[in-house]
Amino acid sequence: ESEHMEIPEQHYKVVARLPSSEFQRICRDLREFGETMQVKASKEGITFSVQGDMGAGNVLLKPREADKPEDKVSLTVHEPVTATFALRYLVNFSKAAPLCGSVELGLGPDAPLLVKYDLENSDNGHMQFYLAPKIDE
C-alpha cells in the first residue's frame, strides 16, 4: 500500500554530497542490523546509525577533500538535523550508485529525505528519490 504525495519545494537545512558507492555500502551494511536508520547531520559530520535485535552499527562520515571529485565528502549545514528512515527504501535508492560517482542527500526537520543522483554526463539529467521520515507513534 503506497501513497503518492506532491513534494513541495524544499530549502534543506543540510545538504551532503558523498561517494555513491559509499552510500550504497553504508545502507547495505547497516541493513544487517535493523530496518530503521537514523541520520544525524551536524557541522562535524553525518552519522548513519541502526539499532536492532542483532546489534547496532553506525558510520560517521566527516567532510574530506579528495583527488577525484566523486570521492569527496562535503556538508553544508545551516542547522543540525536528525531524522529516521525506513532502510529498505534507502537500499533500493542506493542501487542507482553505478550511474553516478556521487550522491546528494538533502535533510530537513519534518521534511522528506532527498536522494539525488546527477547522471555522469550532466546533459543526461538526474534521478531524485524522496523518502518521508518515520514518525514515532
From TrEMBL:
It comes from the Eukaryota. Residues 7-134 form the Proliferating cell nuclear antigen PCNA C-terminal domain. It is found in: Nucleus. GO terms for cellular component: PCNA complex. GO terms for molecular function: DNA binding; DNA polymerase processivity factor activity. GO terms for biological process: leading strand elongation; mismatch repair; regulation of DNA replication; translesion synthesis. CDD domains: PCNA (cd00577). Keywords: DNA replication, DNA-binding, Nucleus. It holds the Pfam family PCNA_C. SUPFAM superfamilies: DNA clamp. Its main location: nucleus. NCBIfam families: pcna. Belongs to the PCNA family. This is Proliferating cell nuclear antigen. The gene is PCNAa.
